[in-house]
Amino acid sequence: MATLRQRSAHSKDDKAKTNGNAQFIDRSSLTSQSNQPPPMYRAIRFFFKICLHSFYGNVEVEGTENIAPDNYPAILVSNHSNSLTDAIAILSTVPPKSRSMIRMTAKDTFWHNPGVFNYVIKNAGTIPIKRRKDYDNQKVDNADAMGALIDSLGAGSCVCMFPEGISRYHPQLAPFKPGVAMIASDTLAKFQDKPDFSLTIMTSSINYLHREKFRSDILITFHAPIVLTPQHNANLFSPHKEERMDAINKLTELLESTVRSNLLDAQDWDTVRLGHVARKIYAGDLGTRISLGQYVRLTRKFVAAFSRHPHVVTTDGKSEDGNSSGDSDSSSEKTYYQDQLDFYHLKDYRIKQGKPPTKVLLGKLFQRSLLACLLSAICIPGLILWAPVFVAIKYKEKQIRQKGPLEDNLDEIAQYKLMISTFFLPLIWGFWVLMTLPIAMVTGPGIVVLMWLTIRWLEDLVHNAKSMLSLLRLLFMTQDTMYSLRDTRQELAGRVHEFAVKQLGLPDDPE
Question: Which residues contact 405 (CB under 8 A, 6 or more apart)?
Fold first, then answer.
């Protein structure tokens, strides 16, 4: 599989030699009608983009130059941690100028049952797949679907697939199933007589920071593509089963490791939490000025280290395979420190700066109170427009929470929040346009602008309220408590910094 890695690296180098998509020659003259997005797909992409950017506060996309352009057969592979939201994120963030259409796969029951959502799915270029769970766990035949999928790739389409096989709310990436590599094998075999045929496999990593929370963040990273050709990757469709399966397994491993390379991947949520604590102690004020991608990659360095060695840092800052003399584990101290921050609703920088004088705290509280009144007043008209969405979301969330443990249903909660928004927004807009028909030319765009501004104002109002709560906690916090937290932070900061520099190879000065 070293060949695949080299081809991926070469394609990235070649890309720099021409404008934008260097490793891809122009195939605009080969445009296939099947690759042109139908009107329903364009509408879906438009509404999904609005909903994604309305619900999530910051959607950062990296590596769009790695996306194979139209008319290049391609499979887009990604992790699957947030149900339908993953597909919405992919469709919304792939630039149409880079790829005008991404075909999804969906369970074939959408084609058997009536309904608005089913109609949308069927008319958006989606490929139906039979699932055993929908047929009483009986054996299903997907030969026709796989044939249609391979023919679609042969025509230059791009198909998005999630090799984990199932969406799940878990910090660790599930082992990839070999389905994508097997489709690649069958596709190369079918078009092996075409001398210029190539299949591009694009990988992406989706990181959600608090996926179910309103105005949280998403990072989507597209990695360097892997280009397969019948000439260079004949082992993928070798007549010898052992050689073929070995190549398929190696390709699957490569896809999994590439996607994993930019995820906060750990065995449990406590390890991810510790990584966040270590990152903010090490980065300090820099943490508020770096991009979301840098934020995730810096956190990942700590998460990866703690995953490999759960007790990697002891009280004297040495690794456990060194001469550690401390009795307690700094992991528990970081956990204790974060627990105290959560209890007092404080950020790390508040502890680092210390408690301001009472007059200063009262002055800041007064300023934020005035800002809260102003933001509340200007949000009221827009909140009336948003009310049906918020009520429906709250009702559905309450129903989902009754199904079982919250952590098992967070992806479903996030999915339905986006689906409800997608359904209600055009209805709300249409209703108010009809209610104000004489001035619809003004209210049409005005309603869109007002609803968007309301979301931004509401986001500012929530941040302002959290800041007021922190200031109140500081106001009533005793000096002894503050001194204790500062001492804990100072001791942790020294050890975390030493570990970051000596063990992780991070710079001595984060700036």
Answer: none
pTM of the predicted model, to two decimals? 0.81
Burial 307-328 (b: 16+ CB within 10 A, else e): beebebbbeebbbeeeebeeee
The SS3 assignment for 199 reads strand
C-alpha distances (whole Å) from 252 to each of 4, 165, 179 are 11, 13, 9
- Is residue 114 a contact partner of residue 138, using CB atoms and an 8 Å limit? no
Q: Where are the beta strands (DSSP E) in 183-243?
A: 199-209, 217-222, 226-228
- 156 Ramachandran zone, left/alpha/beta (phi>0; psi -120 to 50): left
Condensed to tens digits (0 to 9), the pLDDT of residues 196-248 reads 999 999 999 999 988 777 778 999 999 999 999 999 999 999 999 999 999 99
Tokens encoding 263: 């995820």
Q: Which of 279, 276, 275, 283 is nearest to 508 (CA)?
A: 283
Which residue reads 């029951």 in tokens?
109
Q: Which residues of 223-235 are buried (b: 16+ CB within 10 A; e: fewer)?
A: bbbbbbbbeebbb
DSSP 46-79: HHHHHHHHHH-SEEEEE-GGGS--TTS-EEEEE-
User: Tens digits of per-residue pLDDT, 374-386?
Assistant: 999 999 999 999 9
Confidence band (pLDDT; 50, 70, 90) for 193?
A: very high
pLDDT of residue 116: 67
Provide the greatest CA pair distance for the chain: 80
CA 100 to chain centre: 21
Q: How far apart are CA 205 and CA 259, in angstroms?
A: 5
Question: Alpha-carbon distance 403 to 397, whole Å?
Answer: 10
Q: C-alpha distances in angstroms, 482 versus 107, 180, 404?
A: 55, 54, 39
Cα–Cα distance between 227 and 202 in angstroms, integer?
9
d(CA 320, CA 324): 6
Average pLDDT (274-301) is: 89
- Report pLDDT digits (tens) over 151-162: 999 999 999 999
Task: Residue 304: name the closest of 259, 253, 260, 250 by CA.
Answer: 260
Say if residues 289 and 280 touch (Cβ distance below 8 Å).
no
Q: Three-state SS across 294-359?
A: HHHHHHHHHHHHHHHCCCCCECCCCCCCCCCCCCCEHHHHHHHHHHHHHHHCCCHHHHHHCCCCHH
- Inter-residue contact 27 to 71 (CB < 8 Å): yes
The tally of CA atoms less than 13 A away on the side-chain side of residue 426 is 8
**107 to 81, 91, 128, 386, 413: CA distances (angstroms):** 18, 18, 6, 32, 20
Instruction: Name the token pair of 142.
Output: 């997907």
